[in-house]
Amino acid sequence: MSALTKRKAKKEAEATLSEVKLTRREKRERFKKRLECLTPEEQRYLKRKQFMEAVWPIFRGLIVFGLCFIILYPLIFMISTAFRPSSDMNDPTIMWIPKHLTLSNLKQVIKAMNFGKTLSNTLVLNIGCSLVQVATCAITGYGFARYQFKGKKILFFVVIMMILVPPQIILIPQYMFFRYFNPFWVYNAITGKYINLINTAVTMYLPALTANGLRAGLFIFLFRQSFRGLPKELEDAAALDGCSPFTTFVRVMVPNAGSTFLTVFLFSVVWYWNDYYVSTSFFTENETIALTLKNLSTNIKVLIFGDANAQVNTREIIVWMEAACLISITPILILYVCLQKYFTEGIARSGLTGM
User: Fold this and answer.
1) Structural domain boundaries, residue 52
2) Which secondary structure element, helix H or strand E, spans residue 37, and what is its range?
3) Closest alpha carbon to 133 in 206, 228, 221
4) Where is the domain boundary, 67, 82, 97?
5) Is residue 100 within 8 Å of residue 117, measured between CB atoms?
6) Same domain for 233 and 121?
7) Distance CA 227, CA 237 (A)
8) Which of 71, 70, 67, 74 is nearest to 326 (CA)?
9) Is residue 177 domain-shared with residue 141, that is, in the same domain?
10) Which one of 132, 164, 333, 347 is separated from 86 by 20 to 30 angstroms, measured CA to CA?
């Protein structure tokens, strides 16, 4: 660095330091003098700018506080209720902190939900479908991002419609398809019967295998955006090394889109974990946590009061419902806390924050 550059940098540092040391009164005086040198239009602009700079932090703080209250209020209420006895729900003096902390609600709920078996069934269905869906949606998104073929725009329009159209519209045809499953359209002609796939894991795995599972359209779009952001030179270099298109995808593109894979996997896990509407259509037995929560009120009445038709005050039974919800979301919260850093990175790279 030359002597002239050093002197210039020193002067700039001294000017910055002197600016910091200015009092509010001196800043106001300098601002007034600056206004006197400007036109009326420029003066109004600077005043508006100064007003917005003063008001915006307060407005932003109120927005953040409101959003935090809306998001955190149900969670705080759930935690507060899960650890209090049912008698405390009728005590008007108790708002947030219970007078008597108890773990009996959690123990009773775990027994009523048969939590060990239910959790294992949910993990097998959830993790398995998520892994299959990530693989199929990644291949589909890569095809849309890197290859040109006839009907590409029409097929991508179908993907967008998968995002926009609610699953309720196609649920009845899906149910009929699985209830009267006819492989290759010849099974019924040969045997005169149909295969009933209701209450089997195939009803969830088969859509995931065909990139048509829960929120599959969104996942395809995320992978498409992620792969489009990777340089084309990666594929050219792989082709020069003799890699086939599939080998290029597995050995070059997948490692460079690792954060997107993790993001989509987390999204898929959460949606399969919380799914209630689709599961109730294909399962009539309590196979998953979401379905167990549906019938928890009846199970609690049978376990604690000995009668499924027992008349129990809603304010009293809510302690067990909140305890069950707390247990149900705990695995997802642990998963997110452990992978939060990579999840945020994947969101930034997958195209949700800038397209």
Assistant:
1) 24-82
2) none
3) 206
4) 82
5) no
6) yes
7) 16
8) 74
9) yes
10) 333
CA distance 57 to 63: 10
Strand segments (E) across the chain: none
Whether residue 239 lies inside any domain: the answer is yes
3-36 pLDDT, tens digit each: 556 565 555 655 555 555 555 566 666 766 666 6
Rounded to whole angstroms, the Cα distance separating 98 from 295 reads 27
Alpha carbon distance 226, 130 (integer Å): 19
The Cα–Cα gap between 135 and 254 comes to 10
Q: Which residues of the chain have pLDDT under 50?
A: 1, 354-355
User: Are residues 327 and 182 located together in one domain of the fold?
Assistant: yes
pLDDT at position 220 is 93
Length of the chain equals: 355
Decide: 311 and 97 in contact? Cβ < 8 Å.
Answer: no
Question: What does residue 181 show for φ and ψ, rounded to 5 degrees?
Answer: -70, 130
Residues 6+ apart with CB under 8 A from 336: 266, 343
Give dist(CA 347, CA 355) in Å, integer: 12
- Read off the pTM: 0.73
Task: State the pLDDT at residue 354.
Answer: 47
183: amino acid identity, one letter: P
Rounded-to-integer distance, Cα 82 and Cα 323, Å: 4
The predicted structure's pLDDT at residue 10: 58
In angstroms, rounded to a whole number, what is the distance separating the alpha carbons of residues 119 and 114?
Answer: 9
pLDDT tens track for 202-254: 899 999 999 888 889 999 998 998 898 888 888 888 888 888 888 999 888 98
